[in-house]
Description:
204 residues; alpha+beta; Dna Ligase, domain 1; D-amino Acid Aminotransferase, Chain A, domain 1; 6 helices
Amino acid sequence: MEIIDKALKETREIMVESSNDVIPAANEIGYPVVMKGCSPEITHKTEKGLIQTDIRDNREAVDAFNNIMAGMNGIKGAVLVQEMIKGKRELVIGLIRDSQFGPCVMFGLGGIFTEILKDVSFRLAPLEKRDTLEMMDEIKAHKILDSVRGMEPVDREILSEMLIKVGEIGITNNKIKEIDINPVIISGSRPIAVDALIVLQSTP
């Protein structure tokens, strides 16, 4: 996650390993918070019930920590306490390393319906701003980026920079096989990465 942190706008977050550290972390970030189970052995947290949202006080925070740790079924890991980002629009930004073409950047609709709707666009890295703007217009739901139902238009400048940075990460870090930043929640007009997965190349 350090690579992602340096490149993209992310949520404020604190990793905790003990229930004694939950309340100080949640109060430092400020309620409401989101809590997630974290371990290199866990890739899909939602399916495993390891994400709890809209936690509003100390009691709920401790209960959430205990439930998440129990749900990890003995897998060594910790719990990420994260600020809760509110927004009705969710996008996905990703990267896959093709064996022939190298790193390819992906952009599209995010959230839990990413794999169902498959409304995405791809470009080979490195990307220029022109490439990123074309990607935004290529998805079928491109109007979600505009001013709609009282929501502000998405800041395409920030979104463009995020896509360019992901491409740069893929080029400069050959060990990375995949990046999945999902969802990127639109808070007001600003895209914010709230969850990311990095898959490394398997060691020969």
